[in-house]
C-alpha cells in the first residue's frame, strides 16, 4: 500500500511519535524499510522519550533515518545510532557507533529487536542488561 505519512506508538497508543509527512508518496513499506538509507523522519528527543531511554549521552544522532546502518553492526529500520556514554560524542556518519534506538534494530552488543534500544545506547559495560525491547506499532497514512 502506498502512503504519505508515518508515525509509531510504543507500549500504548498514548505514547506516540509525531506524524512525519514524506515529500513524496512511498510506494510500500518494503521500499521504505529495505530501500536506500533516507536521512529523515527522526526527531531525537521524541525517540528518546517514547522509548523511555535514560543514561545516554547528550549528543547529536548518528545516521538518523530509515534503513540506517552504522559502524560495528548497529542498524535500524527506523532510528539512529550513538556512542557509549563513557566515550565522547561522535556524530558523523563514519564515526564509531556502539548503540542504536528505534524500530527493527540490531546492535553489536545484542540480538535483533523489534523495537527499543540496545544496552550500549544507554550503558558503557558489555552485557549489563540495560537493553530495552518494547511493543510498538507503526502506522501509515495512505
Describe the 3D structure.
With 142 residues, this protein is mostly beta strands. The protein has one domain. Helices cover 12% and strands 39% of the residues. The protein is built from three helices and eight strands. The protein has helices at 29-34, 44-50, 119-122, and strands at residues 3-10, 20-26, 62-69, 75-82, 99-107, 110-117, 132-133, 136-141. The strands form two sheets. A five-stranded antiparallel sheet has the order 3-4-5-6-7. Strands 2-1-8 form a three-stranded antiparallel sheet.
Q: What's the short story on this structure?
A:
This protein has 142 residues and is mainly beta. The chain has one domain (3-141).
**Overall pLDDT:** 94
Return residue spans where pLDDT drops below 50 for at least 5 consecutive residues. none
Beta percentage is 35-45%
Q: Enumerate the strands of the largest sheet in spatial order, edge to edge or round the barrel.
A: 3-4-5-6-7
Which secondary structure elements does this structure contain, and how are they paired or packed?
Blueprint: E1 3-10, E2 20-26, H1 29-34, H2 44-50, E3 62-69, E4 75-82, E5 99-107, E6 110-117, H3 119-122, E7 132-133, E8 136-141
Antiparallel strand pairs: 1-2, 1-8, 3-4, 4-5, 5-6, 6-7
Keywords:
142 residues, mainly beta, 5-stranded antiparallel β-sheet, 3-stranded antiparallel β-sheet, 8 strands
Amino acid at each position: 500500500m502506498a502512503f504519505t505519512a508515518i508515525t509509531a506508538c510504543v507500549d500504548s497508543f498514548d505514547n506516540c511519535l509525531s506524524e512525519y509527512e514524506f515529500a513524496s508518496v512511498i510506494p510500500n513499506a518494503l521500499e521504505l524499510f529495505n530501500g536506500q538509507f533516507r536521512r529523515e523522519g527522526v526527531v531525537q528527543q521524541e525517540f528518546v522519550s517514547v522509548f523511555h531511554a535514560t543514561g545516554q549521552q547528550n549528543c547529536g544522532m548518528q545516521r538518523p533515518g530509515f534503513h540506517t546502518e552504522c559502524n560495528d553492526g548497529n542498524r535500524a529500520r527506523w532510528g539512529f545510532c550513538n556512542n557509549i556514554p563513557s566515550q565522547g560524542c561522535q556524530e558523523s556518519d563514519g564515526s564509531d557507533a556502539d548503540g542504536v534506538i528505534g524500530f527493527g534494530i540490531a546492535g553489536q552488543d545484542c540480538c535483533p529487536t523489534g523495537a527499543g534500544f540496545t544496552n550500549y545506547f544507554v550503558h558503557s559495560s558489555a552485557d549489563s542488561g540495560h537493553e530495552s525491547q518494547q511493543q510498538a506499532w507503526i502506522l501509515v497514512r495512505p
